[in-house]
Amino acid sequence: MADLTGRVALVTGGSRGIGAASAVALARAGCDVAVNYLRAADDAAAVVREIEALGRRAVALQADVSREDDVARLVRECDERLGRVDVLVNNAGINPSKPLAELTLADWRATIDANLTSAFLVSQAVLPGMRERRFGRLIFLSSVAAQTGGVIGPHYAASKAGMLGLMHSYANLLAKEGITSNGIAPALIETEMTRSNPRVRPDLIPIGRFGTADEVADIVVMLASNGYMTGQTISPNGGWYMTS
Fold first, then answer.
1. Residue 191 clears pLDDT 90, i.e. is over it
2. How many CA atoms, within 13 angstroms, populate the side-chain half-sphere of residue 208?
3. Is-catalytic flag, 170?
4. Which end of the chain has fewer surrounding CB within 10 Å, N or C?
């Protein structure tokens, strides 16, 4: 397992939930962390304070990661304030839930942009530095919806399945350059996003409870530390979807 001390991590959507837990867990493992947020400035600042209390450097960086200009600024500011990105956690996303018959093209485009296009844009922006240094970790927060269809809708399931295709392509193309690319496909993690959806219940999970953000963050750190695993999807889902 690689030593992460002094590595720079960028966590998109890092102000809350899985993103916040991942940012703090990476700091505990030795990373300096850029905490990206869209609107939750106070939450992002709280995550930065928690990381700084661990003795690591941290910055909160506002950007809409579905917008190319914002992503360019985000990565530039991270480079200037912390250094070039070694570990990217593509976590930003939305899960707008509505009845199937009410889904619109606008819903589809907004979800694909927020969940999938963002992961492409930020990955592309940090890859030149990773390839130059021959070290990098790309981590994609997908969902059990990519594997089962989930409970939110086809727009969300497609966006999360697309993340796994993106992850597989990067893994194949970059394996000889010291860069790994892996996915995490959680199910029903107890976050603000999960609690706001009335269709989501813990009895959907065989284990009988929601997962915790820390349980996912542990996997983020493992993937950041492991230089041999690439092209894989780890599924902390309480037994909802079982792979061979």
1. no
2. 0
3. no
4. C
Q: How many Å apart are CA 112 and CA 157, to the nearest integer?
A: 10
Give CA–CA dist 76/94, Å, rounded.
25
Domains in the chain: boundaries: 8-234
pLDDT score of 15: 98
Strand partners, 87: 9, 137
Q: Which of 37, 156, 228, 241 is catalytic?
A: 156
How does pLDDT run across 66-93, given as a tens digit for each residue? 999 999 999 999 999 999 999 999 999 9
